[in-house]
Amino acid sequence: MTGPTRRQTLAMAGSAGLLAAPALSAGRAHVVVVGGGFGGTAAARTLKEIAPDTDVTLVVDADRFSTCPFSNLVLADEIPLSRITFGFDAVAAAGVSVRVGVAAEIDAARKVVVLQDGNEIGFDRAIVSPGIDLNFGAIPGYDAGAAQRMPHAWKAGVQTELLRDQIGAMPPGGTFVMSVPNNPYRCPPGPYERASLVAHRLSRINPTAKIIIVDGKDSFSKQSLFMEGWDRLYPGMITHVPFAENGGVKDVDAATLTVEAAFETFRGDVVNVIPPQTAAGVALRSGLAGDGDWCQIDQATFESETAPGVHVLGDAAIVGDMPKSGFSASVQGAVCAHVVASWLKGAEPVSDAVLLNTCYSLLSPDYGISVAGVYRVNAEGRLKSVRDAGGNSPMAADDGVRQAEAGFALSWYDTLTRQLFG
Ligand SMILES: Cc1cc2nc3c(=O)[nH]c(=O)nc-3n(C[C@H](O)[C@H](O)[C@H](O)COP(=O)(O)OP(=O)(O)OC[C@H]3O[C@@H](n4cnc5c(N)ncnc54)[C@H](O)[C@@H]3O)c2cc1C
Asked: Residue 388's CB: how many other CB atoms inside 10 A?
């Protein structure tokens, strides 16, 4: 009889909340990474690859991770949630100890991560990429209960499937209302990609339906490209109501599916409230955001300004000019791993790293647009956009260009998720 496979070992360890291979070794440096999404998984895998003598533990709050990127295609009913859901077997197989458990606090003074179950994991350095929390309470009437009637679907998983099913059940000629926060929030172009892909679905199953975007700001990422595409693909279906015209959302009512803004009331048959956000709770509880909503860091090393020895990246942090995207978080994770590996060796990290981001958005499964940016730390230690590098897709491009960009989006997604989870 043979013993359990690594997959079975991980599954067993996960259900028991135990450490999945390999065991820690005395005398070796130990780095604990909190959050098994884009930033954390990139950091853990890169660090193990470039510093194999370092013990790396990745704390994940569930044994599977569903990505927000491409979740709008789930809403469009083009792909199932399983297409964007990944486990951690390959991460463990790469030598990272995967620990399933919720981090309650990162205690920088004692150098331990305290888990919700009371266990503690000691570290020499910690890397924290726990993403966002929804700021329930920022909009009166919107809480976890209301989110069952008015899903946010801004963390992928059950909320995505809930909103997908509501869209499918919308009455003929019904209205889909989306409330969008002011910056900063996770994925600046995400709401507008969502409006596009919901329109793609509705134009097939419910062609007289309408989409109203109640925006907390007056302009948005790739706006001209989105609006050009909406005129072309979904004429008359999507209305964008900027902040200047709605005056800001004052409250919502889940019972009547109403969004009350200062100048107008919007009633929907399906209402998607994307509330303001903060760094995930564990970062706030650990004091990594000071008195604010987002973590402040040294933008060259990602080391927390409030907690020495703790690095924070991804959506939870303000990382110079970089937008809150999965692409950004994965690049930051890799760069941060190099910084940590250097410091563990007693060496100075490379200080002139160039970081990249590209945010692709789909307006339909074969119509893609993008914005790309290049970022470098300047003499004042700020991670700034490099002028004249990057940029948007061209306006008035033909179908072939849009189709090619949709293909690039899919290639980016499949390549990155294979690197992280495959
Ligand atoms: C609709 C939508 C579409 C998007 N599309 C794109 C796109 O096309 N391209 C792109 O680049 N980005 C996109 N994004 C943005 C992208 O999802 C985020 O920027 C990215 O996930 C940030 O990575 P992260 O590591 O900071 O957080 P995450 O990827 O969210 O990872 C954080 C992980 O840590 C876990 N965690 C939180 N607290 C704890 C705790 N206490 N203990 C243990 N684990 C914890 C979380 O549950 C999560 O699994 C999109 C976002 C949305 C909402």
From this structure: 7
> In angstroms, what CA-CA distances link 149 with 165, 166, 253?
12, 9, 10
* Ligand 1 neighbour 191 (Cβ under 6 A): no
* Backbone dihedral angles phi then psi of residue 171, each to the nearest 5 degrees: -65, 155
Ligand 1 centre and the CA of 384: distance in Å?
Answer: 22
Domain 6-133+278-350 has CATH 3.40.47.10: no
Q: How far apart are CA 161 and CA 148, in angstroms?
A: 11
Q: Whose CA is nearest to atom 20 of ligand 1?
A: 326
One digit per residue, the tens of pLDDT, for the chain of length 422 reads 233 333 333 333 333 344 444 456 668 999 999 999 999 999 999 999 999 999 999 999 999 999 999 999 999 999 999 999 999 999 999 999 999 999 999 999 999 999 999 999 999 999 999 999 999 989 999 999 999 999 999 999 999 999 999 999 999 999 999 999 999 999 999 999 999 999 999 999 999 999 999 999 999 999 999 999 999 999 999 999 999 999 999 999 999 999 999 999 999 999 999 999 999 999 999 999 999 999 999 999 999 999 999 999 999 999 999 999 999 999 999 999 999 999 999 999 887 899 999 999 999 999 999 999 999 999 999 999 999 999 999 999 999 999 999 999 999 999 999 999 99
* Superfamily name with CATH number, domain 142-275: FAD/NAD(P)-binding domain (3.50.50.60)
* Tokens 């209301």 found at: 146
The answer to whether 264 touches 241, Cβ cutoff 8 Å, is yes
257: Cβ below 6 Å to ligand 1? no
Q: Taking the model in full, what pTM does it have?
A: 0.94
Q: Does any ligand 1 atom lie closer than 6 A to the CB of residue 40?
A: yes
- What is the location of CATH 3.50.50.60 in the chain? 6-133+278-350, 142-275
> Is any ligand 1 atom within 6 A of the Cβ of residue 14?
no
Question: Which of 365, 360, 367 has its CA nearest to residue 402?
Answer: 367
